[in-house]
């Protein structure tokens, strides 16, 4: 159906229905984690990138694949290893003997959806090539700038436990990712379903793309235009101010983070089929948005997640 | 089965223990040191237990400790059962409670008892300084209660119980104490005063100090010189009299036994001859500090006596009971009155009697003088000249004397304080046949120019004499003025010259004078607000009926109004919303709160309604509809219509608390 109307802007209801179907499709594959799926869609529709951090085997890659498939467009998967070079990601200029010129061979980063698996296995040099591409939306090779396709969405995964031979992303680069989320274990009932039902990964193969790049662009525009009422703006400001006043934080959230927060909240509202933004949307995206940006003081003994929980518990909602 | 309770963390226990220690502080200072050390040790044990996570001692040990503590109090103080013992026992029991201070309930009890403990201090002393203690003690106890509540909330809602924000605690405590002030003020103004308090009067007000006594022996007034505490304060309707006329009359002494001067039973029992008021009378009011004696100090000669006091024949003003709390009285004095133009024979005999076989040299000197100066007045002048011209010294550094003390003083030592001069002069006069009596009291005082009152300290205690002269009756003669005139004109301190102790610096004296102004205001407006003043105040407010019963009713009504006003101000925050939507929302929130659905700190409105729907599944659909309307009305782009719908639905909504054991707790 989405192929049938590729060129003219879809009506809002149409867009919403498509989004709902995409969301349903991903939820079909990823059991029992609707919040995580919503966050992932929020990152996409807010025009940012997503970092999934969790133990192996909980479905990081499956989520990323399902998301890429549902969004449609072309997608690439990069499995990061320690011997990878930046050229392996952004592409190389190759000398063509027949017309004696250099030809640019785009790397796997030239795709709408890039799945960067185990990003912390690559060297910092390689990591920063990807992160630069994420920040700029373009790639520069041999002095030539090549724009990346639109929309450009990176889903990176990272294993926080297996640290030997890895290069964890430094804090300053973590904030290139709009949201960082965890998946967590499924509930007992869902785990049982997982055991008795056919393998989820086989569902991926039969999955049809629901959206396409144009649709995603329209959805991003729709998210940007979503109504945010005064009390919600008050709440956003209160949360940002609380992060700056918190005793256990080195530095509070920047204005860029507050812009990101409002955009994510809008995207989240859109994913949730609302036509306006609720404080609940802000509250639900806040942990994924803020936890990796807040650096706790070492002596406080609190983690970023603790601080975020503390801020949310102590900020009254207007 | 009971779940083992989590150990209460140090910050919560710490505030409670701090409240106990602050409340017990003045009691600790007053009780035997051993007991005080034990109490502090018990508090320290509890803090250490919180820090190292010790378990409470076993039950039998706790009982043993408590019984031992009670036995110790009875053993050390038992003989004099009274307020002090009771207060000490209370402190000791609180200290024993430290060993079972392991539940929130116990913490709360200790913090509450602290308020009572603070109040008991005012049975002993009512000075201004204790206002600081009252404020600090109440504040710390309130903070302890708040922290206990916060800790309990956080354990119930499962939030982290990490270190509390002490600044916000103190701020909230201060706000609560402030909010209580109007209530306290209402009670202060309207609580029916009784002429005598139900619980008796403060005892041991002098804290071991002595004050002026009813007899005078060498050294008894000099001892007071070191005591800088106020004796009384006087306010004058007009200008205060000049320093040389500020003689504050106290006990009048007639009998001399060779060492000590005592009162005359006869003269102090007989009523006075009334003193007429004329144009030169001085009008003044006195706030007398408690001194555990019955005299009221006045200027010569008192025209009226305050209620419940009488004036004796020798013009002492004597109260019915010892003065053990601040006493205020209005006085009128007539300095020009002639006291006893005719001296009755029996009084004359008393005023001339001397112990036999004492001070032979003094008696010889008196005879000598008598022969040289047949006129009484000339004789007096001669003696004063003698004191003035020869090497007599006015000093505190006196030497104890033997049987013929006055002889030694007049002819050998010649160093003495006012009681030495007054006594020697009176003996000389009596030996020469002039009726004489000794008057003790205070002389001078420090004029507080900003406070417009005269501060008389214990160190201003003085003794002088009165001789009876033909034609002018009893006439004041102050031999000290001949030896050290600056004592009379500038006060006792200038006469002695050097500083009396280490802390006697000019700077500290100024500070003390400043502080005394506040003490004066405190005495005058707070302690002095007795039944009579209350009645006058209420009459001025236009209340014709000021019987205690009526006042009590007025008090209850006023209290209700004040509490209602405070509640309005506190709740005003939610009432200030002119927005009907928010008002409806707060009403719904309160209704849910009553059925046990409490909104936690960061819960959004929609989360709260969902949370409520989880508890009341029967009303889930209704709650969902409310949530939808509220969300659209408050956060949506087009609130019109939804706000009205929400208000309408929320009014109709009656939360029903489900019959679950969990919900019953909150009902």
Walk me through this protein's architecture.
The complex is a heterodimer of chains A (318) and B (667). In chain A, strand 6 (138-141) and strand 7 (144-147) form a beta hairpin. Chain A has 318 residues and is an alpha/beta fold. Chain A folds into two domains: 9-217, 3-Layer(aba) Sandwich (Rossmann fold), CATH 3.40.50; 225-314, Orthogonal Bundle (Helicase, Ruva Protein, domain 3), CATH 1.10.8.80. Chain A contains 13 helices and eleven strands. Chain A starts with 11 loop residues before the first helix and ends with a helix. The radius of gyration of chain A is 20 Å and the shape is globular. The longest helix of chain A has 18 residues, at 12-29. Chain B is of the alpha+beta class and 667 residues long. Chain B has three domains: 10-164, no CATH class; 222-507, no CATH class; 580-664, no CATH class. Helices cover 51% and strands 12% of the residues of chain B. Chain B has helices spanning 10-30, 33-52, 59-77, 83-97, 104-120, 129-157, 166-190, 265-269, 345-350, 360-372, 376-389, 405-413, 418-431, 479-483, 485-490, 492-496, 506-527, 531-540, 548-575, 580-594, 605-615, 620-635, 642-652, 661-664, and strands spanning 230-236, 247-256, 261-263, 282-288, 295-296, 298-299, 309-311, 317-319, 327-333, 393-394, 415-416, 436-443, 446-448, 453-457, 461-469, 473-477. In chain B, the strands form four sheets. In chain B, strands 2, 3, 6, 12, 15 and 16 form a six-stranded antiparallel beta sheet that branches. Chain B has a five-stranded antiparallel beta sheet with strand order 9-4-1-14-13, with helices on one face. In chain B, helix 1 (10-30) runs antiparallel to helix 2 (33-52), helix 4 (83-97) packs antiparallel against helix 5 and helix 20 (580-594) packs parallel to helix 23. Chain B is elongated. Classes of the chains: A alpha/beta (318), B alpha+beta (667).
């Amino acid at each position: 159906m989405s192929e049938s109307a590729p060129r003219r802007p879809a009506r809002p209801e149409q867009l919403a229905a498509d989004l709902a179907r995409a969301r349903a499709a991903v939820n079909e594959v990823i059991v029992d984690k609707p919040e995580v799926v919503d966050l992932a869609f929020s990152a996409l529709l807010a025009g940012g990138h997503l970092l999934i951090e969790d133990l192996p085997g909980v479905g990081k890659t499956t989520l990323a694949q399902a998301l890429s498939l549902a969004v449609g467009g072309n997608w690439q998967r990069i499995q990061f290893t320690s011997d990878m070079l930046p050229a392996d990601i952004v592409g190389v200029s190759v000398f063509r003997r027949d017309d004696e010129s250099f030809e640019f061979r785009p790397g796997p980063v030239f795709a709408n959806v890039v799945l960067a698996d185990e990003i912390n296995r690559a060297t910092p040099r390689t990591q920063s090539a990807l992160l630069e591409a994420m920040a700029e939306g373009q790639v520069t090779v041999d002095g030539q700038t090549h724009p990346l396709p639109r929309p450009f969405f990176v889903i990176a995964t990272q294993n926080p436990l297996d640290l030997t031979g890895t290069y964890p992303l430094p804090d300053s680069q973590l904030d290139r990712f709009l949201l960082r989320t965890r998946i967590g274990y499924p509930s007992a009932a869902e785990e049982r379903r997982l055991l008795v039902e056919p393998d989820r990964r086989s569902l991926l193969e039969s999955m049809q793309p629901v959206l396409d790049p144009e649709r995603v662009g329209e959805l991003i525009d729709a998210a940007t235009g979503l109504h945010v009422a005064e009390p919600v703006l008050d709440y956003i400001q209160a949360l940002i101010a609380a992060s700056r006043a918190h005793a256990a934080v080195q530095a509070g959230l920047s204005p860029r983070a507050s812009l990101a927060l409002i955009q994510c909240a809008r995207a989240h509202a859109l994913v949730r089929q609302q036509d306006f933004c609720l404080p609940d949307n802000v509250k639900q995206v806040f942990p994924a948005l803020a936890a990796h940006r807040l650096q706790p003081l070492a002596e406080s003994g609190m983690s970023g997640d603790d601080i975020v929980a503390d801020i949310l518990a102590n900020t009254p909602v207007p | 089965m009971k779940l083992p309770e989590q150990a209460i963390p140090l910050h919560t226990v710490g505030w409670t223990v701090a409240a106990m220690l602050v409340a017990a502080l003045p009691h600790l200072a007053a009780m035997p040191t051993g007991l005080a050390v034990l109490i502090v040790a018990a508090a320290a044990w509890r803090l250490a237990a919180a820090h190292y996570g010790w378990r409470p001692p076993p039950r039998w040990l706790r009982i043993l400790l408590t019984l031992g503590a009670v036995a110790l109090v009875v053993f050390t103080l038992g003989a004099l059962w009274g307020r002090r013992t009771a207060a000490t026992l209370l402190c000791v029991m609180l200290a024993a409670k430290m060993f079972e201070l392991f539940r929130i309930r116990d913490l709360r009890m200790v913090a509450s008892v602290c308020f009572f403990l603070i109040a008991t201090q005012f049975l002993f002393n009512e000075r201004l300084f204790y206002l600081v203690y009252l404020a600090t003690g109440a504040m710390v106890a309130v903070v302890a209660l708040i922290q206990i509540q916060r800790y309990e909330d956080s354990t119930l809602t499962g939030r982290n119980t990490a270190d509390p924000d002490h600044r916000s605690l103190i701020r909230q405590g201060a706000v609560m104490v402030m909010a209580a002030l109007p209530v306290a003020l209402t009670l202060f103004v309207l609580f029916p005063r009784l002429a005598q308090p139900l619980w008796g009067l403060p005892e041991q007000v002098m804290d071991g100090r002595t004050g002026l006594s009813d007899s005078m022996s060498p050294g008894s007034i000099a001892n007071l010189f070191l005591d800088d505490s106020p004796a009384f304060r006087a306010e004058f309707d007009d200008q205060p009299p000049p320093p040389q006329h500020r003689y504050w009359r106290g006990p009048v002494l007639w009998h001399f036994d060779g060492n000590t001067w005592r009162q005359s039973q006869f003269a102090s029992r007989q009523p006075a001859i009334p003193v007429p008021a004329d144009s030169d009378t001085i009008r003044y009011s006195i706030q007398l500090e408690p001194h555990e004696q019955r005299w009221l100090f006045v200027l010569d000669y008192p025209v009226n006596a305050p209620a419940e006091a009488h004036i004796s024949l020798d013009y002492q003003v004597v109260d019915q009971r010892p003065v053990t709390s601040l006493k205020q009285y209005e006085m009128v004095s007539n300095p020009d009155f002639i006291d006893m133009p005719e001296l009755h024979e029996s009084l004359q005999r008393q005023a001339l009697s001397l112990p036999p076989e004492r001070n032979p040299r003094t008696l010889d000197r008196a005879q000598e003088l008598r022969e040289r100066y047949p006129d009484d007045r000339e004789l007096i002048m001669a003696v004063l000249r003698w004191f003035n011209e020869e090497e007599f010294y006015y000093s505190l550094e006196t030497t104890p004397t033997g049987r013929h003390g006055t002889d030694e003083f007049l002819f050998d030592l010649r160093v003495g304080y006012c009681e030495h001069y007054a006594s020697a002069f009176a003996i000389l006069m009596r030996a020469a046949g002039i009726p004489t009596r000794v008057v003790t009291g205070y002389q001078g005082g420090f004029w507080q120019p900003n406070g417009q009152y005269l501060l008389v300290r214990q160190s201003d205690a003085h003794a002088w004499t009165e001789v009876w002269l033909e034609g002018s009756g009893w006439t004041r003669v102050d031999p000290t003025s001949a030896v050290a005139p600056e004592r009379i004109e500038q006060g006792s301190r200038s006469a002695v010259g050097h500083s009396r102790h280490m802390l006697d610096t000019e700077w500290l004296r100024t500070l003390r004078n400043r502080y005394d102004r506040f003490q004066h205001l405190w005495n005058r407006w707070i302690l002095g607000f007795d039944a009579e003043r209350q009645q006058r105040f209420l009459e001025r407010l236009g209340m014709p009926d000021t019987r205690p019963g009526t006042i009590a009713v007025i008090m209850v009504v006023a209290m209700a109004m004040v509490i209602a006003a405070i509640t309005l101000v506190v709740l005003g925050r939610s009432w200030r919303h002119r927005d009907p939507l928010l008002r409806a929302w707060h009403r719904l929130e309160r209704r849910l709160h009553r059925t046990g659905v409490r909104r936690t700190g960061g819960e959004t409105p929609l989360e709260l309604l969902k949370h409520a729907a989880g508890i009341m599944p029967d009303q889930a659909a209704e709650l969902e509809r409310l949530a939808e309307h509220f969300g659209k009305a408050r956060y949506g782009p087009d609130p019109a219509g939804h706000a009205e719908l929400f208000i309408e639905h929320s009014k109709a909504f009656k939360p029903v608390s489900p019959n679950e054991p969990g919900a019953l707790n909150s009902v």
